[in-house]
């Protein structure tokens, strides 16, 4: 979604769910469902009908990575986690406790960083690269 929002800012006009779906190699229904969460939080707006589509409702400088993370339901930021295959095993309990603590600390650091990075920061980074521009 970060990719999509930065492209939306760089290109005038509305982006349809079909166009966004092609960009992400997914289904327009998935796009509409995901964008609805962003719309509900006030980051995008949508219009139906001919000429309709999605537009940003706020400038990129007013949207942080943390905002988007939360608008998308605060998904887990890590693909690893505790195992509960043998919940009664003392070794598994000890591993899960230590792993859980480490992951909570890492997630707190990562989310704090997300709160300091705006989409405008990302767009500037794109534009600063050779051949840059969204």
Automatic annotation (TrEMBL):
Pfam families, alphabetically? Rrf2
Query: Which SUPFAM superfamilies does its entry note?
Result: Winged helix' DNA-binding domain (SSF46785)
PANTHER family for this protein:
HTH-TYPE TRANSCRIPTIONAL REGULATOR YWGB-RELATED, WINGED HELIX-TURN-HELIX TRANSCRIPTIONAL REGULATOR, RRF2 FAMILY
What name does the UniProt record give this protein? Answer: Rrf2 family transcriptional regulator
Organism the protein comes from: Pseudoduganella buxea
């Amino acid at each position: 979604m970060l990719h999509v929002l930065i492209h939306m800012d760089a290109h005038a006009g509305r982006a349809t769910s079909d166009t966004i779906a092609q960009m992400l190699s997914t289904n327009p229904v998935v796009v509409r469902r995901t964008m609805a969460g962003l719309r509900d939080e006030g980051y995008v707006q949508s219009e139906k009908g001919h000429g309709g589509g999605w537009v940003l409702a706020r400038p990129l400088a007013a949207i942080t990575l943390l905002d988007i993370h939360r608008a998308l339901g605060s998904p887990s930021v890590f693909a690893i986690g505790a195992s509960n295959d043998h919940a009664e095993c003392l070794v598994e309990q000890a591993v899960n406790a230590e792993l859980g603590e480490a992951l909570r600390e890492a997630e707190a650091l990562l989310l704090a960083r997300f709160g300091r990075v705006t989409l405008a920061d990302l767009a500037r980074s794109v534009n600063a690269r050779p051949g840059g521009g969204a």
